[in-house]
Amino acid sequence: MSNALLHPSSLSAVQHPLAVYGWDEGWEAEFAPYAAQGLVPGRVVRVDRGQCDVATPDGVVRADTEFVVPRDPMKVVCTGDWVAVDPDDSDPRYVRTLLPRRTAFVRSTSSKRSDGQVLATNIDHVVICVSLAAELDLGRIERFLALAMSASSGEALLHKSALSWESGAQPVVVLTKADLVTDPVTLAHLVQDVENTAPGVPVVAASAHCGDGLDILRALVGNGTSVLLGQSGAGKSTLANALIGEDVMDVRAARDVDGKGRHTTTTRNLLALPGGGVLIDTPGLRGVGLYDAQSGVGQVFAEIEELAERCRFHDCAHESEPGCAVRAAVDGGELPVRRLESYRKLIRENQWIVAKTDARLRAEIRRDWKRKGAEGRAAMQAKQGRWT
Ligand code: GDP
Ligand code: ZN
């Protein structure tokens, strides 16, 4: 009950003890009705079955999530969520409500978004880590960008639609292990190649080993919440350590007080960075693959989708259809053929992955193949008819 008194709301949002976790005036406004009920604000730093660790103005506390357990898997409490918890004299202590999410990183388990699994929420920056130890694969970067784009806004989630480039999490590409590219001219060219692939996306060459590029990265993630994405071995953990400035495991294994006043040693999946900003790193996110980036595909390949609107057939596959504006752009040299190939590959991959779990879409794709086959045969017969 006394929490409202201990942490007067007269404190401005930036002086608030939760400011390091990303508390701002927006959250303060969302939380106001719950503050009036004597509830305590906090950000979820880790989720367990039925329980979670919440960073509150009193430190990290353990709370039960039973009260907000909904039937909708999209509304399950997740690392990154802002919540209202019972005051500290409550036993048991419950999470009472989930503040509306600004963004969410969702792994879709089918083509219907409502079936998704939420991996992290309220993310501002998706840091895509790509190692310079191997040859740059621009196609892979495009796929990760599409994945980053699929981090939807909370509103968009409710309406099951994709969100725009501006309103979602901002992607950043980090070319890691930059120390392995010793020639500065070569390095500049690599950065340029990635910049051309991802117009408007910041690209940073960084080395956790020699420290190059780290201040730029710190500045980019210093405001808001970030997640690191990338293949295993891309250097994500090393980069996280560099940002955190200490060994991650030491920082993460913190002695916290649970809802019953006991000390527990837990691992946090959400950390306030010493240089500002917040980093979320969950096992679920680390294992994220390149599936279901559908909503992001159109944003990464915006120019192709734009051209496609001018194709004669609205379901044009941009292969050999007459009146195809996309092929015309390739032929005219305005669209690199590699771009079109990556786009196709990504669309195909997405369809295949979604189709694995979605019988309806599978049937649709099969119908499409049949129709194309029948059209092809009809066209052949027409041609043969003309020739004989
Ligand atoms: P993760 O799987 O993405 O978390 O990758 P890790 O952080 O575990 O790094 C994979 C390997 O790359 C390790 O052997 C690191 O030592 C190495 N590595 C990470 N960052 C750098 C760097 O800046 N320069 C070099 N040369 N190697 C690095
Ligand atoms: Zn076309």
Question: What's the short version?
Answer:
The chain has 388 residues and is of the alpha/beta class.
Rg is: 24 Å
The mean pLDDT is 77
Strand content: 15-25%
CATH superfamily of the largest domain: P-loop containing nucleotide triphosphate hydrolases
**Spatial separation of the terminal alpha carbons:** 91 Å
Order of helices and strands: HHEEEEEEEEHEHEHEHEHHEEEEHHHHHH
Number of strands: 16
Main structural class: alpha/beta
User: For this structure, what is the CATH class of the largest domain?
Assistant: Alpha Beta
Low-pLDDT stretches: 1-9, 109-114, 153-167, 290-295
Largest sheet: 6 strands, mixed
How helix-rich are the residues, as a percent range? Answer: 25-40%
- Name the CATH architecture of the largest domain: 3-Layer(aba) Sandwich
Shape: globular
- What is the helix tally? 14
- By CATH, the topology of the largest domain is Rossmann fold
Give the strand line-up of the largest sheet.
Answer: 11-10-8-12-16-15
Tally of individual domains: 3
